Amino acid sequence: MTATRGAGKAAAARPAGSRASADRLARLLNLVPYLLARPGIEIAQAAADLGVTERQLREDLELLWVCGLPGYGPGDLIDMAFDGDRVTITYDAGIDRPLRLTPDEALALVVALRMLAETPGMANRDAIERALAKIENAAGDLVGSAVAVRLPGDAERLDLLRGAVQRRRALRITYYTAARDETTERTVDPLRVLMVAGRAYLEAWCRRAEAVRLFRADRIDALTELDEPAMAPPEAQLHDVTAGVFRPTPELPLVTLRVGRGGRWITEYYPCEEVRPGPGDEWTVAMRVTDLTWARRFVLGLGPDVTVISPPELVEAVRAEAAAALDAYAVPQPATPEPTG
Length: 341
Fold this sequence. Notes:
The protein is of the alpha+beta class.
């Protein structure tokens, strides 16, 4: 008895449980060539070979049934037949053929891997280089001439920062603070250099702020190692960055926004205290910010996809700056000539 595709579609709509999507994708990609090499294999035997339960394998087969090439017509989807407890792939939708990269895809992979290899502090650099060599060898002339990627100034700057930490020397730095859109001169006592979410930071005691601060390496415009030793006070404590650099605390300003569909992405990139669906496509989002100056620039950058609800001073600051921007685009009216007597 051969099963029908419609039954597979209905079954595939059922929840797949709590398995991680990445794990399931790996199983599905392995499942097709495995079944192609063993037509008519018993499901129990296949489950044992693949290290899954029979129920899990059947659910994977039901999902596999509605996978295939774009177009998703009857001739594009993976098809299979069941004969009792045996399964056979009857159409593989081309998944047995090697992946062919377009020139743009090959170049994007090469650039991404080279950037990854150049990231300071990156572990398993040898594995990245091996993967890069394989892709470049397979792509051949697709990527054109050799691609060189350098993260601007990072490697040299990080060497200087690490040297200052090792030598226990104070630094004078010129630093750009994005939250306030300003550049300042500071003298700092370096504590360590660390990587968080792919970015390099100098953690140091800032004599100007009289506190431990994290300085993004790519925002240090200039630095000079001083002759004096670094002398961070005993109360200087390292930050816990396991959850990221920014850690919202109750004393920080709380901003409430109403965002449309185009602005929902902020809930995935910024820590939010509350996300509440509203009428239609709008969400109400509450988030802590370092200061309201940063929040004003952030909100203005989102354009019409956001409305500020609170605090009142942020509402007024955004309104005033938006009005000033509109005034700058206003067309001056020609002067009315005075009547002649």
